Amino acid sequence: MPHVVDTDRLVAEGILNSGQAAEIARRSRETMVSLAVNTVLCLGIVAATLGLVFWLADTLAVALAGVVFLLVGGLVLTKGRDLYRMLGNAAALVGAGMLIAGSGIELVDKLPNSAGSLMLVMGAALAAAAWAVFSRASTLRFASGSVLLMGIAMHLWGLGLLAEDVTGWPRAICLGYAAVLVAGAGYLVDVR
After folding, report:
1. Under a CB-based contact definition with an 8 Å cutoff, are residues 77 and 143 in contact?
2. How many Cβ atoms sit within 10 Å of the Cβ of residue 172?
3. Scanning 73, 78, 103, 139, which has its CA 20 to 30 A from the CA of 87?
């Protein structure tokens, strides 16, 4: 993959020497390849999660399969070799996505009157648990950071259900809270 910086021009202008230019080119290519792989991985995780959710078509089965995937992914990440990290992350994220989607859909379907408040609390609890793991900077950093974002998404889904008919200043406060939460999560969670 090509690198973004025109290192030949920088060498010609005397800003870099050829060794520095070669190192910048090498690192740039590594970063671009990593970005491409991570993008494909994320799209694959979303596709696998949604595919399994619709294929199983039973919220309890989806949630249970999600727990299994999440546990297996976590086990691979904590006990497996670095070679298997991508598979462990993918399994953990598919599992977390299935668990959150399964429980969220089940709540909306079976308990529509209390789904918003339950999802608000469950999402916050999930985000807090994931933050506890994420902040320790362990081998679970990518997975726990992503689960933290999923927990925030569930929390905001619950807030959206609760604030569906709210107007005026209370709605503005809810939207402001959501914006601050998303911005804060984006700032604090660096899952690279």
Report:
1. yes
2. 11
3. 103
Token pair recorded at residue 50: 């949604």
Convert the pLDDT of each residue in 93-136 to its tens digit.
Answer: 888 888 888 888 878 888 889 999 999 999 999 999 888 888 88
> What percent of the residues of the chain are helix, what percent strand, and what percent coil, each to the nearest 5?
80, 0, 20
Tell me which residue of 55, 52, 54, 83 sits closest to 68, measured CA to CA.
52
Judge whether 98 and 60 are in contact, CB under 8 Å.
no
Residue with tokens 């999560």: 185
- Contact (Cβ atoms closer than 8 angstroms) between residue 154 and residue 122: yes
Residue with tokens 């290192």: 7
| CA distance linking residue 5 with residue 107, whole number of Å | 50
Contact 94, 102 (CB under 8 A): no
**Alpha-carbon dihedral 91, 93, 96, 100, rounded to 10 degrees:** -130
The Cα–Cα gap between 93 and 110 comes to 25
Pick from 21, 27, 23, 29: nearest CA to 2? 29
d(CA 105, CA 134): 26
Dist. CA 61–CA 171, nearest whole Å: 36
Interacting residues of 168 by C-beta distance below 8 A, sequence separation 6+:
none
